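Sequence only, no structure available. Ideas?
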Amino acid sequence: MKDLKPKYFLYARKSTEDDDHQIMSIEAQLFELREYARRENVEILEEFQESKSAKKPGRELFGEMMTRIERGEANGIIAWHPDRLARNSVDGGRVIYLVDTEQIAFLRFPTFWFEPTPQGKFMLQVAFGQSKYYSDNLVENINRGIRQKLRRGEWLTKAPFGYVNNQKTRTIEPHPTLSKVIVRAFEEFATGKYTLGSLAEFLAELGLETRHRTPLAKASISRMLTNRAYLGLVKHKGEYHEGRFEPILSATLFEAAQEILRRKAKPRKSKQRHDFPFTGLMICGECGSAITAQFSRGKCGGIYRYYRCTKKKGVCLQKYIQEKDLAAQIKARLQSVAICDEWISKMLKQVDEWEKENNHSSQKFVQNLKNKISKTQEKLDKLVSAYIDGDIPKENYLPKKEGLLKQKVSLANDLEDFGQTGKNWLQPLRAWILDTKKAKNLASSENYGEMKRFVQKVGTNPKFLDKSISFSFCPPWDFMALRLAQSHQAEGRSPEATSAKKLKSFELWTYGESNPDLLHAMEP
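Reply:
I predicted one. Tokens follow.
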């Protein structure tokens, strides 16, 4: 070997991956290596620090260091251990080749002995091989653990939106609030009335938005609507596995949303060249024909849109109406079922209290049913034991057993039925209150498309007659409009009392009450 003056590069590396968490930090490596260089009287030309895994070739700073060694700028490397230099065969082979060609004449490690002799190079190859074996074996262990988790139905990563991670069960469970938002989003989109953009705006009204307080991007909405985790499935490397966590959606609702996505992915070509948001909303009140739309340009170059009867069923004397006048009439109609923010806040607060009370009473009711089932089973066990011991004759045993079995089946059916229907009235109540807020917002909005969809949701039989639109409200909106109109006429009533009565009215409606005496008692 040539008599060369040692010129060292210092190399410190820390992988950012979990498999390297036992290795010293870069700061600790630098401190130890500098102390080692001082003790050994080693001169360091330059330091290279890198936070990147060495399992694959392609480290930029390592490549720069090796290139500069090949150019002769240095002939030695000081590192904590050979595995800091390489954990793959390409980088390890490059180091050994430069040692063979004497371009690397000095390798110093505080934790590993090396001399450029056949034995030293053999031990260096062994060290690189051990590092690669460790990485390969660790990857195999991780993959084996993932396969085991998939067999157990566990979720592998951070919970998707709508779920939360449960560290005790090592899986995920539906978030008490956000899971309901997911269900509502799928239900609304499955109606076919929403695009990805309008659904993002709808969810923003429910509080689901970006950190910048803007609606979610269309790509985020699309990923949410196609996420099969909501069906209780785990996806890994393109393959789905059955999870043991509770699904948020039913398969029917999920597939309905997928059908809408497929339909909107290839929209039909439309001959309609202009946006007429209120077409298809109403029919002519005189002849029953459809209402069409057209536009005209004013003297100042502005575009005006009009709606009129198509007159396809014969002579009709109805005249046209400008779109802005039609929108003003719809806004006034929506205002008749709109509630102020103060009332909405109080009503939602009351619903939250009812939900807490309902949960408490539901838990007591379910526990009571389970206790009855348990006691019935104990009676059955004692009855069977008494019969086996000969303490009770067969003619007495059989009818008692049959009666206890019928009682147990009846209790089990009650428990199952309550689980399906016990809490269903609160969800439509909360949705209805939020819709009243939406009615208030639309009454001062210029979003004509959303206004049309809302009228189609809450109204029935829209007609156009004498340049006016009329439609009736569906239950419970008709009941709400009547009570609000009466409350505006009543004197000496506070908003709190009025809102409480409206909320109680809808509570009765959700329960299916139809007692005229009760409704009469709630009138102002």
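The first helix runs from residue 26 to 39.
Hope that gets you unstuck.
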